[in-house]
């Protein structure tokens, strides 16, 4: 027997689920949110942890290597990165974020069950909490269960590091091999390099950061190599063996690499395996992602998917965008937003940001495009911040001056790309740049130079 019926049941209390639940509740819907932990993997093993580690490691490296230029301090011993203190700091930030989420949900009137849910049938969940199991009916449901790290399928006698167990480390490893050259792999490679580890990235394809413009990636690889990071491409890992305090990684080209630790980052998959989606008539594609309409509706017309488990995009801004789309569709206010509008920002060394199409993708789609490439070299703000290298690349339609994409590398890349993301969404043509006034000295001053090039 169904214990209770709700207008909307949201499964998963990460950013996408919380945003969707709040918006629907604020518009008068009776909403139930189900998850074991408010904040989900986002707070405890996802973006919050990786972004904070990148921030802390940036401060650490700047204080150790840069501050000595103008601070007269003599250390009794060399400084070292303290994982215990880092975890304490991150736990404090996470606790505040979780409390903010809880307060927002309570203010919106969202009901919460701390537990798990599986589909009983097309319009019913079986919910299990600490005390019992019972049925909950729904008119509409939203799956917001996020994503999980993909397993390696590689024989290993060594316990591998990933974003869920990083704090099992007690000190910076002397050397780390990062398996996977995607967004997460390059972020953690940056983290380990900053805290003093020797880093090697292994990528099975011929290109790291697959969705980023190839010229930006080439510049990134060159600068990483100058920073002492080795990048091995076009090979896969055959097996991993622990020998004493060292780990041997055997590669498909019959070579082997040695390191103290191995960090695994070969991609993420939707966290939907325990939902019994078949019982609800929800079909998946071959890669395990749900088949979705443009408004993110599944093959069960009453069930939607948002965030990471859509498989469309795994950045936090997409979590919020997709939640907004679905909430509006349920409220019968159709609002379809392309994931291409989501800026992709990577706080690496150097920083990388992108939005829209790359030059290669634009040409693949048969678009007659032109490219502006403008470097930051000798740009005043870059000189002041001690980051002399970087460039921005803009892809646009020559006939309409419509911006198709923007890719940037170097300090200030995120701010610059965000500006172009707004222009793309607002359909502002590139030649309108000359009408704007930009602050000085900031990286946005580059835009004034670009306006001159367009003119």
Folded structure, characterized:
The chain has helices at residues 15-26, 40-44, 47-66, 83-108, 183-194, 214-226, 316-330, 359-364, 380-385, 413-425, 445-454; strands spanning 2-11, 31-34, 111-113, 116-121, 124-128, 133-143, 147-149, 175-179, 198-203, 230-233, 237-243, 246-251, 256-259, 261-264, 268-270, 303-305, 344-346, 352-356, 369-375, 391-397, 403-409. The chain is globular, with a radius of gyration of 24 Å. Strand 12 (246-251) and strand 13 form a beta hairpin. It has 455 residues and is of the alpha/beta class. Helix 1 runs parallel beside helix 4 (83-108) and helix 3 packs parallel to helix 5 (183-194). It has 3 domains: 2-149 and 269-340, FAD/NAD(P)-binding domain; 166-266, FAD/NAD(P)-binding domain; 350-454, FAD/NAD-linked reductase, C-terminal dimerisation domain (Enolase-like, domain 1). The strands form 5 sheets. Strands 1, 2, 3, 4, 5, 6 and 16 form a 7-stranded mixed sheet that branches. NAD(+) binds at residues 180-187, 203, 267. GO terms for molecular function: dihydrolipoyl dehydrogenase (NADH) activity; flavin adenine dinucleotide binding.
Beta-strand segment tally: 21
Helical fraction equals 25-40%
Q: How would you characterize the largest beta sheet?
A: 7 strands, mixed
Cα shape: globular
Q: Decide which structural class fits the backbone.
A: alpha/beta
CA-to-CA gap between the ends? 69 Å
Task: Determine the number of helices (DSSP H or I, runs of at least 4 residues).
Answer: 11
Could you list the spans in which at least 5 consecutive residues all have pLDDT below 50?
none
**Mean pLDDT over the full residue set:** 90
**Main CATH class of the largest domain:** Alpha Beta
CATH evolutionary superfamily of the largest domain = FAD/NAD(P)-binding domain
**Proportion of residues in β-strands:** 15-25%
Q: Kindly identify the CATH topology of the largest domain.
A: FAD/NAD(P)-binding domain
Named CATH architecture of the largest domain: 3-Layer(bba) Sandwich
Query: How many domain units?
Result: 3
What is the radius of gyration? 24 Å
